[in-house]
Amino acid sequence: MVTFFIRRTIGAALMLFVVSISTFLIFFGLPRLAGATPETFAARYLSRTADAHAQQVFAEKLGFYDPLWLQYWNWIKAVFVGTDYDYGTGIEHCAAPCFGYSFRTNHAVWDDLVDRLPVTVSLTVGASILWLLTGVAVGVLSALRKGSFFDRAAMTGALAGVSLPPYFTGLMFLYFFSYQFDLTAPGGTYVNFTDDPGEWAYSLILPWITLAMLNAAAYARFTRAGMLDTMGEDFIRTARAKGLHERVVVTKHGLRAALTPIITIFGLDVGLLLGGAILTESTFGLKGLGYFAIDAINKQDFPQIMGVTMFAAFFVVVANLIVDMLYAVVDPRVRLS
């Protein structure tokens, strides 16, 4: 098990390394191929009144004249140990982890990411609990009552849930429950959990339901398909022949085997959402990582885009690593792969 963990951890680290190189080349290598000069990058940190000499001096200070490999090394080194470049902010040292400073605001990118992380984590945790419990429960009941009215209704609802995008269901929920009946908090409302747990849940109930509808529908279909396959296996018939209670057969033997693929998609879904639930956050005006990413892209703020990209990649890679560990616990055969 230790060897398996070490092997997967090394693989995760290599994946982050590849993502970091790709991200850096996209934002600093490709513009050079397109004709961008070091002064072009430096100008983004300076005011519009800065002359060519000021741009040249600033480009030299930030190392934009260095070879790409050296620029990449300085960027990675800044992430782990910080940097003495002040990026025009007047700050003499950017403490690790340092993703640089925003072109527009001169705020440290890392601080901006950390400020928005609680919103995205809150949205992800609440929605993931809802869709996991709801989707698995509906999928199991549908499999056990195959062909019944409940099965048909549940799968029809699941198909509708998968088909409707979050920006449609989110806007409908806001219109009816927030603005027509005044039952939930309006869009753009967020209260920190530490300030008031009740208001925190009240402000996020609609985003949770909106995001959970999409994923719960998919989980219900996956669980139903897995349970139908599992409940016809020989070991299920053997368990019943031993006289085990049907509840034990379903939960201990059938559901455990059917949940193996669910673990995979759940871990990856959570990892992706921690990188930013873009559509849901934009629909409800929640200032999380997804909203931050869209704003950075629209304003072409390279340091912010690179920071949120690495942030999202980290969550996805770590989620994939945790899934591999859980897989090895659920199915020991995985350790041999």
Automatic annotation (TrEMBL):
Subcellular location: Cell membrane
Membrane topology: Multi-pass membrane protein
Predominant place of localization: membrane
GO CC annotations, alphabetized: plasma membrane
Coiled coil: none
ABC transmembrane type-1 domain: residues covered: 117-327
Keywords assigned: Cell membrane, Membrane, Transmembrane, Transmembrane helix, Transport
InterPro entries reported for this sequence: BPD_transp_1_N, MetI-like, MetI-like_sf
A Pfam family recorded for this sequence: BPD_transp_1
Keyword Transport attributed: yes
Bilayer-spanning residue ranges: 12-30, 119-144, 156-180, 200-222, 257-279, 305-330
GO MF term (any one): dipeptide transmembrane transporter activity
Similarity field: Belongs to the binding-protein-dependent transport system permease family.
Protein's name according to its UniProt entry: ABC transporter permease
